[in-house]
Specification:
Strands 1, 2, 3, 4, 5, 6, 7, 8, 9 and 10 form a ten-stranded antiparallel beta sheet that branches. The protein is built from three helices and ten strands. The chain is an alpha+beta fold. Strand 4 and strand 5 form a beta hairpin.
Length: about 190
């Protein structure tokens, strides 16, 4: 019993002194940055609105946590985003109908060139993106490559939508056109 207490005291002392050399962080390493953002954005979806004959709006709402990780020289090398309570919906203001889906996700992105505008980024997205109805969903894992087109005010890189290319995907990604399904669900 005394030996266990002695080992416990030694362990606590080691941790209190910084964990020894195994856990020491070099003085020149840039610590990770953590951001918590509340999103509540809506914008019209022209493609659905034109096909349905009434305005269709997408609403993105929830908290997103972002962590930025840097190399020892201070260059951004990767980020993680997660939004376990994030929700996404399509709504038709004229009919008052909505399709709401939980969209818990995790995205791990690797950057070249420190995440500067014009450099390549590869994002690994995992989780449920959207469920329109049972059997009609977009869920699984996607690997997407694109080019950084800008940054948020906090300095988080944004991949330009026009440059995104799906490298691979696995899971349940509905392959038919969802437009008629959206129009039927939101219509009068």
């Amino acid at each position: 019993m005394r030996r266990r207490i002695g080992l416990l005291v030694s362990l606590v002392t080691l941790l209190a002194l910084g964990g020894g050399t195994l856990a020491a962080t070099p003085a020149w390493a840039t610590p990770p940055q953590h951001f918590h953002q509340q999103l509540n954005e809506s914008f019209p979806v022209d493609e659905f609105s034109a096909a349905c004959g009434f305005e269709v709006v997408v609403v993105l709402a929830g908290n997103v946590n972002t962590d930025l990780f840097f190399d020892q020289g201070g260059a951004l090398v990767r980020s993680t985003n997660h939004g376990p309570g994030f929700r996404q919906s399509f709504t038709a203001p004229s009919t008052g109908k909505s399709i709401v889906s939980a969209s818990p996700f995790a995205v791990h992105t690797e950057y070249t060139g420190g995440g500067a505008v014009g450099t390549t980024a590869v994002a690994h997205a995992t989780g449920l993106v959207f469920m329109l109805q049972p059997g009609v969903m977009f869920a699984g894992r996607q690997v997407i490559e694109g080019v950084v087109g800008g940054h948020t005010p906090e300095g988080i890189p944004i991949i330009d939508d026009n440059t995104k290319t799906v490298i691979s995907q696995s899971g349940n990604f509905f392959s038919d056109d969802i437009t008629p399904l959206v129009c039927d669900a939101l219509g009068p």
